[in-house]
């Protein structure tokens, strides 16, 4: 029997252990240690920011009557409970009472937060202290126009605040290069039309809308332009370890602090490869990211540098909440078995971006490389009939997802004993790069 190693992929809340060939390449970034004293590190960062006066000094200078803090929604594992109390205490000490502070969950076009999710995101103590609301991109009465050309509207509570703080965390992002920074404002707090432009056909057809790229990335440019127009007084971004602990803090000036964080995250998360593999196994990033297939697309797109025309990609994902929004599910089913027709349609109607079409457009990057037959999905969260209509090849049959995934690996390995196999245990949190050829 061939020798194997057991590797655990991020999957739901518990992970998915899988046996892989002993010679398989494990693609991960560096081991990132957690900060030894996160709370002290938060205090130190607030007092010694990058490219900005300390938060306390900013408050003293601006003497704000209203402060708005934007945070990520449940799809992002940001350790808000570790840094929000220190931020609120700093504001209080500078004379801003809790009643003058609003925390805005930057939902973008994601569904509203549930009460239980708000407790997970910020905790009951914060909910008792300050007002916490969701952004509502589809409600014009909650938005204020900040630009006419192009037209952009932003959450009114954020625009009208005297002190504006953006928080979040930095990771590789399959469209915008990196998350964090300006993304805490756009797409998090903008109107539907701006969201559609940010995710439009031409934006995502640009090859520079990709992991790790900021220069001339149209997603980054759109988001940064909006953030500059509105004005952000203070950024608080973190990098996190695999078990969601704080590894780095980048706060202060929106652009300077974010760039420092992006450079460090790139160094930490990059895995170099020498070319495509025959068989690649990846995941959707585990809870909370892999709760929908919509978010799962990030994992398969992140694997693209490792995919050649003959590669088989095995994607595992929890998808406990199913495909995603109703609009996304409807779009997927409409174009079942006809992804090329979908691409032709959105290209022909490039000035009309349908809700959530961008995620299927990104999936098509993978389909253009390897085709439907070689894009395998293992999940327990979506019914088999729907899976068969999602422009991929579902791994179905007896047993739960881990059993079916293992069976698929064993079957492929038995029929391809000399295959070059790679596994990406952290899925979308690992950025792949082709190693430079030193022989040239």
UniProtKB/TrEMBL annotation:
<dbReference type="Pfam" id="PF21113">
    <property type="entry name" value="LarA_C"/>
</dbReference>
<dbReference type="InterPro" id="IPR018657">
    <property type="entry name" value="LarA-like_N"/>
</dbReference>
<dbReference type="InterPro" id="IPR048068">
    <property type="entry name" value="LarA-like"/>
</dbReference>
<dbReference type="InterPro" id="IPR043166">
    <property type="entry name" value="LarA-like_C"/>
</dbReference>
<feature type="domain" description="Lactate racemase C-terminal">
    <location>
        <begin position="277"/>
        <end position="427"/>
    </location>
</feature>
<protein>
    <submittedName>
        <fullName>Uncharacterized protein</fullName>
    </submittedName>
</protein>
<dbReference type="Pfam" id="PF09861">
    <property type="entry name" value="Lar_N"/>
</dbReference>
<dbReference type="InterPro" id="IPR048520">
    <property type="entry name" value="LarA_C"/>
</dbReference>
<dbReference type="InterPro" id="IPR047926">
    <property type="entry name" value="Ni_dep_LarA"/>
</dbReference>
<dbReference type="GO" id="GO:0050043">
    <property type="term" value="F:lactate racemase activity"/>
</dbReference>
<feature type="domain" description="LarA-like N-terminal">
    <location>
        <begin position="11"/>
        <end position="210"/>
    </location>
</feature>
